[in-house]
Amino acid sequence: MIEPTVSILVMLVTVTAFIYYLLTTKSEAKDQSYASYFLVILAIGVILHYPSYAPVAADQSPSELFVEQLLAFGKAMETALRAFSGMFNIGAAQQEYADLAYKLAVFLHYLASMLLTFLVAIKLFGKNVATGSESGSTRTDPNTSLLDPASTPSFFLKALITSKSAGPL
Q1: Which residues neighbour 54 within 8 Å (Cβ) at sequence distance 6 or greater?
Q2: Residue 116: Cβ within 10 Å count
Q3: Looking at 35-39, 52-56, 71-75, 94-98, which range is the least confident one?
Q4: Which of 29, 35, 87, 143 is in Cβ range 3.0-4.6 Å of 82 for a Cys bridge?
């Protein structure tokens, strides 16, 4: 079980990483803040989810225990990475010995990872949609919008035509 002080420390680090991201203004530094925010949130997720997969030291040899710990670390990493895609796993927080601070820390980790996912999606896709640019575009007039009916072919029609999916919708 994670102590309440560790849970509170994890929550403070999560909020501090988010504030660092918000206060970063330059474009180059903003890209680095995405990476820093991701690494901090990933590490926090591994720390929070490891106890739910950690092996109980039963009658095992040191090599078996080491392998079990590696597998627990891998499962904790998997759970932390899944939070970025929207999968919420409460893990050890649903056990009766988990305290309120730990439950809040797990939930804050989930919110922080989803927030980062949305921020990256907006950064990657939002600018293209807002400015009307598309990858591989041959349009020369930057004033036309993707939603403008006069812009031919429209983005959605072009995406359907160039789609490589095989089979009916």
Answers
A1: 69, 72
A2: 21
A3: 94-98
A4: 87
Q: In Å, how far are 3, 49, 58, 88, 154 from 107, measured between CA atoms?
A: 16, 11, 31, 8, 41
Placement of tokens 């309440």 in the chain: 4
Tokens of 79: 């759970």
Which phi and psi angles does 23 have, rounded to 5°? -80, -10
Whether the model clears a pTM of 0.85, i.e. scores above it, the answer is no
- Selection from 19-23, 89-93, 97-101, 108-112 with the highest mean pLDDT: 108-112
Query: Tell me, what amino acid is at 82?
Result: R
How far CA 22 is from CA of 53, 60, 148, 163, in Å, comes to 33, 47, 33, 37
* SS3 readout for 78-131: HHHHHHCCCCCCCHHHHCCCCCHHHHHHHHHHHHHHHHHHHHHHHHHHHHHHHH
Q: Is the peptide bond before 149 cis (omega within 30 degrees of 0)?
A: no
